[in-house]
Amino acid sequence: MEEYPLTVPSRSAVRVRVPAKINLHLGVGPLRDDGFHDLATVFHAVSLYDELTLECGPPGVRLVLETPDNAVPTDERNLAVRALNALAAYANIEPAVTVRLRKGIPVAGGMAGGSADAAAALVAGDTLWQLATPPEKLHELAAQLGSDVPFALLGGDALGTGRGERLTPLTHPYQRHWVFATASEGLSTPAVYAESDRIRGTTAASDPEPVIKALDEPDPRALADALGNDLQAATLSLRPELHHVLAAGEAAGALKGIVSGSGPTCAFLVRDAEHARSVAARLKNTRIAHGPVGGAALVTN
Hints:
This is 4-diphosphocytidyl-2-C-methyl-D-erythritol kinase. By secondary structure, this protein is α+β, with helices and mostly antiparallel strands. The chain has ten helices and twelve strands.
């Protein structure tokens, strides 16, 4: 007998909030045969959020941007749409939902906004369709969608290996404060990795252990001294003006500035919330945040 996808009873709507990430350390190994790089990275979730609301109907997956941005696709190219289709296929149901997406994470800024949206969609779809998907299966679906998606589900701090999808949570008692200098134009992550391959060749990934140790130190200056990003040279090669942004942040009093992931957002570690306000006031196009924070989660109010 031929089986047909099922339509399941559901709640009328759910809302999920999901954080941005930065890489406190991003070690990048040589290009693998599968087109990815082996990574040794320390993820850190920060309090810049996207918010995704999932509503019933019409048939299919329809995405509506509540903060319009021409750089954000609303079709199958959007990871949130792909995540819902993947979850529906796993559950053998026909999706019939509208996704309302409010962006608070910089677009194409090296802070994994698209991956965050995919994680939010998995949590929202699982709740709306009452699937109770095992966490390990959600992680598997997340890893199939993108290397940063599993961490967006987890949040907090974590060591990422493989292509970033293999996660080891890191726990420590200290909150960190950040100022982010955002750019008006994003950067292509594949372009940055290609430039890094050109510059670095087959250099092994740098060691994340100094950052992991620094997370256990109460003084944020220990973490500032340990921050590192193997992609930074490539990002600066493609966007030389970021040299001036990094210099300006440190001149404004930040403990250390680093390119966030593949950029072009620059992350500045500061001492505390008051110091963050002081540094941000001396820079342009800034956002203030703290971390670590939890991963994708339902909003209940």
